[in-house]
Amino acid sequence: MDVDTLAQVAVWYNELRKTSNDAFMALYEDEHRYLVLKGGGGSGKSIFAGRKILERCISEPKHRFLVCRKVARTLRESCFAQLRGQIAQYYPKCGAVVAKGDLRISFPNGSEILFAGLDDVEKLKSIYDITGIWIEEASELLESDFNQLDIRLRTKCPYYLQIILTFNPVSITHWLKARFFDRRDPRASVHETTYKDNRFLGEEAIQTLEAFKDTDEYYYQVYCLGMWGVTGKTVFNAKSVTEQLQRNIQPIRVGYFAFDYDGLKLSDIRWVDDPNGFIKVYQEPRQGVPYVIGGDTAGDGSDYFVAQVLDNRTGQQVCALRHQSDEDLYAMQVYCLGMWYNTALVGIEANWSTYPIRELERLHYPNQYVRESVDDYTHKVTKAFGFWTSAKTRNLIIAGLIQVCREDISLVVDRVTLEEMLTFVRDESFKPQAEAGAHDDTIMALAIAHYIRPQQSYLPLEPERKRVKWHPSQWEDYDRASPEEREYLIKKWGRPE
User: Fold this and answer.
1) How far apart are CA 322 and CA 31, in angstroms?
2) Does domain 253-460 have CATH number 2.60.120.10?
3) pLDDT number for residue 72
4) Pairwise CA distance, residues 302 & 59, whole Å
5) So what's the pLDDT on residue 302?
6) pLDDT reported for residue 283
7) Domains in the chain: boundaries
8) What radius of gyration do the chain's Cα atoms show?
9) What is the predicted pLDDT for the residue at 58?
10) CA torsion sign, 394 to 400 to 403 to 407?
């Protein structure tokens, strides 16, 4: 590139910077297939999207951009009017021809911008050779609508193909969140802004937005701060949960456990750091600290296996395991997690399957939660490992967790857990449950963990004795013993290797 060209590029870039928000400057050169712009009102995301399209239409000949919304009639007074205004303000000499009748903008170099609503099927059928798409208010679309647009963007051209999505985060259960935020698509560039990133927003507009803090706090959080919205009446205090989410606490380690397994026992347990791992550690185990683990199983296979770890002295959440896997692998990871956290008390839900509980017993995990029940016929008290969720105990543990979070939401730090709290609502009969499309696995596991805490010490543990190797006869006695007898045997013989 010669000196004159470099000088022209520098002038262009400086002019662009003067009239653009700093938060969006790097995105002018972004070539990802999906440019996902989540933001609150007044953040400037739509202004940027229109500006980028105009820059490309003017500098790259023979573009065919499609600008769309769910409903066609909303385009004339929104995107079409915006682009007309931007042309008049920034590109008055570009030679653009604006056809108001059929909503079309043409440029001398053969580029054009077309407008269509997804409710105008016949017009969409007539649009071909698309080189780029801007979807305004993308949260109005169904995922199937988006997929149809995505398929249409397959034209061969000398430039990169890109879909720009701009939207307010209306619901935490929306497909946009699941597709682009919960799992990272390497072809997508995700960008988040608020009105605070828009240096061109007038003082009066800023005051109007900030006034919602006092008049409509929910509106302020979603439409001003760009937080994911919720539907229904949340069981947990949405304000405090959202504020805790805004702290954006990150795990200090992410990964899983590796181990050797001979078919009978686990050995050489070791932590593996993996950014894609399913265990998030917020506090590593501390010597002498008593821990508790609550577990929720995957039920009919549609949900996740979860384990929540608490520091039993304070109730602080220190670790969270969440993945979709086989029951035996889940049991082994919980075994490793429990041993790592000072032989934590482990209580796993027994309703759907007792396999993880029986697997922990087979692996000789020494500290499982013991529930008691009264036999209806003999009236004898029976004991069994694991937590049983009934209509009564479900309400009991949820009420306990609500109280914990009301008194101190800072005890919960895991993002997935907090987000589930925002979608845990009361239905028409006031029953607390996850709203349609959402999960409650992390909530139930956390509620179980808090409920079983009384079976674990609230005080620092005594220094752990050196582990000893048990003889087969000792293991036989241990396997036949009751939970109380097992604790006695461990004290007598020492914890096994």
Assistant:
1) 33
2) no
3) 87
4) 49
5) 56
6) 96
7) 24-229, 253-460, 465-497
8) 29
9) 94
10) negative
Instruction: Show contacts of 426-432: CB within 8 Å, 24+ apart.
Output: 426/232, 426/233, 426/235, 427/232, 432/235, 432/398
**DSSP states of 479-490:** HHS-HHHHHHHH
Task: Classify each residue of 358-377 as buried b or exposed e, where b means 16 or more C-beta atoms within 10 Å of its C-beta.
Answer: ebbeebbbbbbbbbeeeeee
Across the strands, what pairs with 355?
A: none
Residue written as token pair 């009934």: 390
Distances (CA, A) of 465 to 119, 291, 367, 380, 453: 71, 17, 16, 36, 23
Q: Give the position of tokens 């889940």.
A: 330
Q: Looking up tokens 């249409």, which residue turns up?
A: 152
3-state secondary structure of 381: strand
Closest residue by Cα to residue 48 from 149, 160, 166, 196:
166
Residue 322 is inside which H or E element, if any?
Answer: strand 316-323
Instruction: Give the burial class of 5: count Cβ atoms within 10 A of its Cβ; 0-12 exposed, 13-18 middle, 19 or more buried.
Output: exposed
Q: What is the CATH number of domain 24-229?
A: 3.40.50.300
Q: Are 400 and 450 in contact (CB under 8 A)?
A: yes
The SS3 of residue 132 is: strand
Looking at residue 429, its pLDDT comes to 64
CB-CB contact of 269 with 338 (8 Å):
no
DSSP state letter for 215: H
DSSP 387: B
| Spatial contact of 194 and 246, defined as CB atoms under 8 Å apart | no
Give 10-residue mean pLDDT values along the chain (497 residues).
60 85 95 95 94 95 94 91 95 92 92 90 78 94 91 89 92 86 90 94 90 76 78 78 90 96 91 95 94 87 85 96 90 96 95 90 93 68 85 88 92 94 78 82 95 89 70 82 75 77
> Rounded to whole angstroms, how far apart are CA atoms 65 and 107?
12
Q: What is the pLDDT of residue 467?
A: 75
- Residue 311: exposure state from Cβ atoms within 10 A (0-12, 13-18, ≥19): buried
Distances from the Cα of 202 to the Cα of 42, 86, 87, 212, 419, angstroms: 10, 18, 21, 16, 33
Q: Are 402 and 396 in contact (CB under 8 A)?
A: no
Specify whether the CB–CB gap between 478 and 331 falls below 8 A. Answer: no
- Closest by CA to 416, choosing from 390, 437, 440, is 440
Same fold? 24-229, 253-460:
no
Q: In what order do the strands lie in the sheet containing 233-234?
A: 233-234, 424-426, 432-434
